[in-house]
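User: Design a sequence. Structure:
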């Protein structure tokens, strides 16, 4: 098994008025059935709505490939910052770090300038896979904050039908992430386009994952498999770390 890479990138909010900045708790839940998909740490960007890392029906950019094929966002973060220098970027990482398994939750708290960065963009690799992920195609689809800085969206749900195939790597368990037999560093280019495709995950059914369970996709197009929840929290003086997921947590439902 090759571990999914973990990376967190910070961005400052210089010049923001204090009244515009809120501490926002971003919580994630893996709602997929037991023994089904896991998710790489969620890569997030609070932004001005201009950066678009991929488009349905087009060839995948290097930025979204770095999320879809390895989960790290190693090209996604620099591309995002180059396009939108005032964006707040970071990650929601389970504790201990690693894939978010079925039934798992994690959270992080970010300081966000609600006027400069009212939009929310995200991406996370779906594993096991070669190049599947979740994320928003339209950079302005999720406007979290209105003109007065009030939170407008309480949660974002992802369903089976929300799973993207980057079309960049041929499906092959021997080169897939999060499989006991897989070597994620190997790849065969597919030269396809980004498209919705969750049924291709069946190629990994019956194989052992890096977490020790035997994979079985199970979910359908209308089944909710992932949820992102937003909550504005009080901002103690010691918690005001701009642009970084300063608090991380993990629990299992029913624990």
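Assistant: Done.
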């Amino acid at each position: 098994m090759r571990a999914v890479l973990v990376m967190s990138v910070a961005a400052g909010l210089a010049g923001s008025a204090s009244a515009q900045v809120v501490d926002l708790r971003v919580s994630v839940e893996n709602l997929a059935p037991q023994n089904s998909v896991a998710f790489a740490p969620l890569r997030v960007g609070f932004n001005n709505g201009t950066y678009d890392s991929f488009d349905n029906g087009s060839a995948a950019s290097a930025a979204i490939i770095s999320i879809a094929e390895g989960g790290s966002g190693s090209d996604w973060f620099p591309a995002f910052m180059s396009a939108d220098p005032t964006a707040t970027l970071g990650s929601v990482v389970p504790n201990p770090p690693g894939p978010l398994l079925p039934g798992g939750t994690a959270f992080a708290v970010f300081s966000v300038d609600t006027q400069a960065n009212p939009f929310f963009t995200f991406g996370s690799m779906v594993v096991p896979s070669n190049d599947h992920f979740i994320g928003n195609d339209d950079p302005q689809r999720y406007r979290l904050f209105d003109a007065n800085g009030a939170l407008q969206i309480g949660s974002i749900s992802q369903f089976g039908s929300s799973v993207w195939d980057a079309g960049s790597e041929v499906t092959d368990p021997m080169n897939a992430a999060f499989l006991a037999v897989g070597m994620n560093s190997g790849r065969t280019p597919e030269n396809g386009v980004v498209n919705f495709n969750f049924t291709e995950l069946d190629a990994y059914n019956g194989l052992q994952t890096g977490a020790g369970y035997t994979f079985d996709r199970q979910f359908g197009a209308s089944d909710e498999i992932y949820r992102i929840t937003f909550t504005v929290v009080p901002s103690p003086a010691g918690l005001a770390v701009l642009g970084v997921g300063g608090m991380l947590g993990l629990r299992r439902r029913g624990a």
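Helices lie at 62-68, 76-83. Residues 1-18, 237-255 have pLDDT under 50 and may be disordered.
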